[in-house]
Amino acid sequence: MAGPRVFRIHLDQPDDPRWWRMLSDAERERASRLACSTEQHRFTIAHAALRAILGRLCGVRAPMLDFRTEAEGRPYLALPDGRPPLDFNLSHSGEWALVAVTPPGSRVGVDVERIRQDLDCLEMARRMYQPAEVDRLHYADPAARHTDYFELWSAKEAYVKAVGVGLAGLRDVLVHREASAPHGTVLSRSLPGAVWPVRWLDIAPGYSAALVTGPGHRKTSSQNSSGICPGASSVAPPPMG
What we know:
Blueprint: E1 5-10, H1 17-22, H2 25-33, H3 37-58, E2 66-69, E3 75-78, E4 87-93, E5 96-102, E6 106-114, H4 121-128, H5 131-138, H6 145-163, E7 173-176, E8 183-188, E9 196-201, E10 207-215
Antiparallel strand pairs: 1-5, 2-3, 4-5, 6-10, 7-8, 8-9, 9-10
């Protein structure tokens, strides 16, 4: 791999018992705890697809993939022969999931969000966003305000997932974008480091998605995270590019 790849998965597919069989016991328990059968099905497919994609790219049978966590809880892949692993990230919302993968030595974060028209996006932005971003939303075309809000959110969440600080660090993230350009930059006011590039992805009508990549090294932990990270499938969806 010369650069990041993003795979798009449609989650509302006919059931296949192979997906469920490939999940770990802990993942099956997580799926079973979801109240809605639709969400259980989507969870299973999303987590199955991740293992299928990584297994294919790494040349390892999907059930044999070993997922662990960094000190801050971010998942990573440990390969059996000691090779530096690909970095990856999974996000799912509504009927779509994205899996992003990037070569060793770099970090990737991806986020997809279903755009909710019932959300008071200005009030949420005042609580969560930087002042310049709130002003941008305030003066935006009301017809596009919700889309703008979720495009900022997807970029912020992709960034904190790539860095590994979790949603607690989202309030300090600043996104810069010229008009509706497909590319921009993102940084954190509380974390040292360079500005990271962000690319917005066209997933499906009614959804916003963003990809963030940057350099980085893994802070390893001995914890096995087979119950935290994704499960498996036998066929991977095509890459977006």
